[in-house]
Amino acid sequence: MVELSKGENTWLAERDVTVGVEFLAGTADVDLFSVLVRADGSAGSDRDLVYFNQPSSQCGAVTLADRGVQLRLDAVPSDVAMVVIAAALDGTAPGTVASRGPGEVIVRSTAGILAVHTITGLTDERCVVLVEIYRRDSGWKIRAVSQGWANGIADLIESYGIVVDSSVPEPEAAQPAVIVVPDEFGAEPIGAGEEAWRKKRSGQPLNDFEDLHALEYEQGLVRGAHFLKWSSEVARLKREGHLQEALTVLLEILDATERIQAQERANIPVRTALFRGRVNVVVRETPPGWTENAAIVLRKLGDIEGEIAIIDRWLAHAGDPTHWVGATHTKLLARRDKALALLEKKRRQ
What we know:
By secondary structure, the protein is of the alpha+beta class. It has two domains: about 1-160, sav2460 like domains (Lipoxygenase-1), CATH 2.60.60; about 190-349, Serine Threonine Protein Phosphatase 5, Tetratricopeptide repeat, CATH 1.25.40. About 35% of the residues lie in helices and about 25% in strands. The chain has a six-stranded mixed beta sheet, with no helix packed on it. A six-stranded antiparallel beta sheet has the order 2-12-11-8-4-5, covered by helices on one side. The termini are far apart. The relative contact order is 0.11. Residues about 165-190 have low confidence and may be disordered.
């Protein structure tokens, strides 16, 4: 058994685990939630939220049970980078999570207790991320988090891109001293692009396809790390209320996605020649999840015009709507319509 302090992580040796929580005052008014999160830091749809009214994920890999959240990690879809486990007081319960007394997160398998995390450092939170279970290489790791929101479950859900209407104002947050790239931005390649880019940097010879991959990967760098590796840091900034800093990073990420798209467009003639015209070479859309994250932050900051502008910016790079896959595109369009309505209402006041 491993004892995890706040911020620590460890490997999960077992692939079928249950994550539960226990408080001194009991858990009668504490609900468990889970969110399946993509590489861009957002949920793919509201079906990726597991809670009392939706006790199983669409894939069936994450379910609520009597003892906690059950996870079958081998069944988690490949596009899910992380599973977040959170606890929140129900809407009628008074007080805070901290007022329930000392709490422990317990991770079990059929082999016994794998890890324990004592919840510490809470103040006025009504919703707390307990742990994050995330992919690393071909395995899974678990990180103790113990951070959350005073406004409850709505902030958790919206922080991962599932829109929840709320009139509760965002509490003012202290400014962070520095934005830190976490340790999970480590040395593991995330695909052919990074492998080719590393070969290029080390002076190794590249074939024609690797040369294209390296060029495109390089355009996706944000402060030295590929934009796909920024999801945990963006989620942390949002979770801790550092919204302006999160927006700054998100805007840099959007710049990077557009640079990649421009490089792919510039590479079309070369790719077409390499495939000898036998393949219809396409340019990928810019990923919508990052725009959704930025739009959510702008809404929280009260910048409705900025929210509309950021969605319009994405639309200019989103390509043919008939080729869109997933629910995020529709959610962005709905968010834009709602923002336009809010702006019109504001102008009439």
